[in-house]
Amino acid sequence: MQLKAGNAIRSSEETILLSPTGTGKTLAFLLPVIEQLDISLEAVQCLILVPSRELAIQIEQVAREMGTGYKINAVYGGRQIIKDKAELKQNPAILIGTPGRVADHIRRNTVSTQNIKVLVLDEFDKSLEIGFEKEMSEITESLHGLTRKILTSATDDPNIPDFVGIINPHIINHLHEGVKDLSIKIVSSPVKDKLDTLVELLCHLGNKPGIVFCNYRESIQRVSDHLKHNNISHECFYGGMEQKDRERSLIKFRNGSSNLLLATDLAARGIDIQEIRFIIHYHLPLRSQEFTHRNGRTARMHNDGAAYVIKWKEEELPEFITSSEEELLISKATPKPSAWTTLFISGGRKDKISKGDIVGLLIKQGELNKDQIGIIELKQDCAFVAVHKKLSKKVIAKTNNSRLKKKKIRVYEV
After folding, report:
1. Rounded-to-integer distance, Cα 193 and Cα 15, Å
2. Which of 145, 251, 305, 308 is in the most buried spot, having the most CB atoms within 10 Å?
3. Does 2.60.40.1930 match the CATH number of domain 182-312?
4. 2-177 and 182-312 have identical folds
5. Residue 22, by phi and psi: left (phi above 0), alpha (psi -120 to 50) or beta?
6. Degrees to nearest 5, angle at CA 202 with 199 and 208
């Protein structure tokens, strides 16, 4: 898929890339786009529009880790615009952002569209679905020098609005590959309120990493309270949360500090989390697209996985759920919390701090060995690192208020 997409993007003015979640679409368009950038031009040359803050952050991280030497920035709602302005004083070659925030910057003249040659609409159907059509139309109307348009989606037969100006696209369709090793199982709930059945299912599944999907953000708190009451450790992720809290929930889930994420369909696509062993449809999805995208969180990249549908015994399954396989729950103990925890470090890329510097601090001052240090996520002004939970207090005592690359840092558990 990546080879076909690369060839199409290099040779065609318009490319539509259709591929399931988790198959590497980000690299598929980034690699050929970066090849076409002009290293002598200090201006925004590629604009990537995405439906969610998390996807903007994720693409920025992937692009930075490629080590291209080009300046790359992400802008999105939920953080102070003054931070954007400071980062955009020096033009990035690639700008990634949500349509609302990008349109705002164009209106403020903090982003020039004059040299933008490449437009990428990543998960464009999702952006339209959640109401960004006006902003996307406004942005595309300001782009007069485009030589490449790239659209991606994980949905078959997406509706492309006229304002995008797609005339004769080269279509790369790999949706048929789908999720090969996914089993879909029905779990029967004896009562309409499924909370106790959910707890029983989570105990049955054990400590494997997974996501529980709810249809409404209002339901998340009720389900979360019930899980806490039953001592089931988890993180929450939904649109009404503060951006900082959303980011930290995903960081803790990615690095294994938490094995369970309780989420709305905001987590159904656009976030890259490996090794999710199961997903649970606590609420039945309202449409087939949600069912497909939720299921796409597991059984990714040749790994197996399972999707569990909790169904009240008198509830009708929608026609797009065809599984007849029922899961009989075997009572087991409450899943143990993760052995890892996440530490916050108040220094990041702008302080010239690297992941290697953080490892050195934790080994030399924190007295950890490399096996006691987990995933590190380095941000512009901070970092997060997973460490063994039983050693976290000792590490904090030895590293908090110390100096890292000449910066005095704070270290604490999140």
Report:
1. 46
2. 308
3. no
4. yes
5. left
6. 160
Of 98, 86, 137, 91, nearest in space to 116 by CA: 91
Strands 403-404 vs 407-408: parallel, antiparallel or unpaired = antiparallel
In single-letter form, the type of residue at position 201 comes to: L
What residue segments make up the domains of the chain, in order of their start?
Answer: 2-177, 182-312, 340-413
> Which residue, among 208, 184, 325, 195, has the nearest Cα to 277 in the 3D structure?
208
Cβ atoms of residues 212 and 223 within 8 Å: yes
The CA angle 308-215-23, to the nearest 5 degrees, is 60
Specify whether the CB–CB gap between 194 and 280 falls below 8 A: no
Model pLDDT for residues 57-115, shown as the tens digit of each residue: 999 999 998 999 999 999 999 889 999 999 999 999 999 999 999 999 999 999 999 99
Percent of the chain exceeding pLDDT 90 equals 77
User: For residue 207, is it left (φ>0), alpha (ψ between -120 and 50) or beta?
Assistant: alpha
* Residue tagged 């996985």 (tokens): 305
Q: How far apart are CA 276 and CA 274, in angstroms?
A: 6
User: 390: exposed, middle or buried (C-beta count within 10 Å: 0-12, 13-18, 19+)?
Assistant: exposed
For 232-246, the pLDDT digits (tens) are 999 999 988 998 999
**Nearest-angstrom CA–CA distance, 149 and 141:** 13
The reported pTM is 0.84
Q: How far apart are CA 338 and CA 58, in angstroms?
A: 24
d(CA 336, CA 148): 50
Q: Does domain 340-413 have CATH number 3.30.70.330?
A: yes
* Cβ atoms 187, 327 nearer than 8 A: yes
Distances in Å between the alpha carbon of 360 and those of 344, 366, 405?
Answer: 16, 9, 11
In one letter, which amino acid is 111?
Answer: V
